[in-house]
Amino acid sequence: MHETDPHFEALLVYLKESRGFDFTGYKRSSLMRRVNRRMTQVDAAGYPEYLDFLQVHPDEFTALFNTILINVTAFFRDTDAWEYLRAEVLEPMIEAKPADSMIRIWSAGCASGQEAYTLAMVLAEMLGIEQFKDRVKIYATDVDEEQLNEARQASYGEREIQDLEPELVERYFEQLNGRYTFRKDLRRSVIFGRNDLVQDAPISRIDLLTCRNTLMYFNAETQAKILGRFHFALAETGVLFLGKAEMLLSHSSLFTPIDLKRRVFRRVPRLYAPPGVVFADPPPTGTGGVTGLDELRNEAFAASPLAQLVLTSDGLVACSNRQLEKLFGVSSRDIGRPFRDLDLSYRPVELRRYIEQTQLERRTLRVTDVEYHRGTDVVHLMVQISPLSGADGSLLGVNLIFHDVTASRRLQDDLEHANQQLEAAYEELQSTNEELETTNEELQSTVEELETTNEELQSTNEELETMNEELQSTNDELQSINDQLRVSTSRLDEANAFLETVLTSLQAGVAVVDPDLRIRMWNRHAEDLWGLRSGEVIGQHFLNLDIGLPIDRIRPLVRGALDAGGRSGEIRLDAVNRRGRAITVRVACTPLRSRDGGPGGGDGAIIVMETA
Ligand SMILES: C[S@@+](CC[C@H](N)C(=O)[O-])C[C@H]1O[C@@H](n2cnc3c(N)ncnc32)[C@H](O)[C@@H]1O
């Protein structure tokens, strides 16, 4: 037994209040195991954290309920029990019913419907299709809406029908795309609905109620409550069919076993009282010539270990023995007194009406389970009340024997207790087994998912490898282009340096302009001559230069070099150098031509300025 954990109980109250699911009557051991599984999956450290998680993630309720409401099921689950039910319960039940009367069946806790359709197949086989459609109603209920939806579809896969006899599959299922769907015309006789066994009202006038592998999830108190409802639900001679691990019912006064092994029970009418056992009349006595028999008989009677009292036919105390005196204080002093005046007539049990009944019916009655408190001791008694008849059959009196059954009662209690523990352990085992089956299925599907993911990863990996190879070769190509560029750049640098040296070595100012007259080159000598550094003039329009040279005068010269004809020319000019001294400058202008360029000044012009 698990101790109750207040945080866990608070979680159950929350589930009840927020979603109407009352799990408080479920066995704690299994329930806690299932909730703990969900907690591990969502990384909740304890019940309070899980409660917080549920408040923030409403989707978690569905996952939790799916985990708690174990829904393992199968067609003809426990085949042997179904065969027994058919032959020993349903056959006689149908025979005893008027030919046109309805047969009402309730499959409570039907999960995904296999049990309900099993019932439909069994009855259709017995009654024939037409009678089945006319007479049978199967109500199939569960608390789990998702399961009910599956059940309503009536469509099953290869795996679910694999243990069904092929003839039944042939007769009752339509096959399409690998799915097997239960016949629509018979499906109409099966009505699915949501019913919470803990909270909802039962269906009534039921002939056969199957509630298999569902009760075992509830604690004894809730089981008893549900059994009360089942008793109400069943018709007078209705039958209850439980799962093979469900045993506690054997203690219920509401049902009596028809076959305990197969867990088939009949409803007991409410006002049931166990019938009395009729004993044979005592053999006639005689003396056989022996003397002193009366005294011997009296002594034998007085010394009997059983407390005994004999009454006359008109209710007076005739004889009592020592054991009776020890037990109830009734002694020989009470002989001749009316029995009804003695406390014993109504304490510890009302005996007068049994005595009247014995006299009337002339048969022995037994009153069982009589509890008698003697000081601090409790004595359990069974009182046997028998009529005493004369040889002519007339009633002489009544004999009351008080059997002390305390020891056997105690043994029986111990036995029952041990039995209950055994049954509870068996139920626990069965529910653990079902949990394991579910877990196994879940693991199976996780393994399948992992296999798929693995395959996907494998192919992604291969793609990555190919991409990697392509990148490598692109990289190699880029590297070689880069190398070429580096070589070209260094050649260019060399050429530039060489050009720079040539220009610097010239004893004349040199300016190179592009076709738009923007200055591209300005050598050291030009800097010295006009006082402008190369950095200041590169990119400037040559004709806008503000230097001591009369630019306007050389404009035609430069234009001539740039024109289509590309003429070279020369001019002498008076100018002022950077120091402000008057100088004479010879300016020569030549078109700039690339090596493969045609005639004309398309590429610019070279202007050489030399002090004359
Ligand atoms: C293990 S299955 C049994 C299915 C089927 N009767 C069989 O024996 O194969 C138990 C079913 O009981 C249902 N159940 C659990 N608590 C319930 C409740 N309070 N009321 C109705 N059904 C409940 C679950 O949803 C689940 O479908």
TrEMBL record:
Reactions that this protein is recorded to catalyse: L-glutamyl-[protein] + S-adenosyl-L-methionine = [protein]-L-glutamate 5-O-methyl ester + S-adenosyl-L-homocysteine
Pfam families named among the record's database cross-references: CheR (PF01739), CheR_N (PF03705), PAS_4 (PF08448)
Domain PAS: start-end pairs: 495-543
Source organism superkingdom: Bacteria
Listed GO biological process terms: methylation
Record's keyword terms, sorted: Coiled coil, Methyltransferase, S-adenosyl-L-methionine, Transferase
An MF annotation (GO) of this entry: protein-glutamate O-methyltransferase activity
Domain CheR-type methyltransferase: 1-271
EC number from the UniProt entry: 2.1.1.80
Positions in coiled-coil regions: 408-488
Residue ranges annotated for the PAC domain, each copy included: 358-417
NCBIfam families hit by this protein: sensory_box
Protein name, entry field: protein-glutamate O-methyltransferase
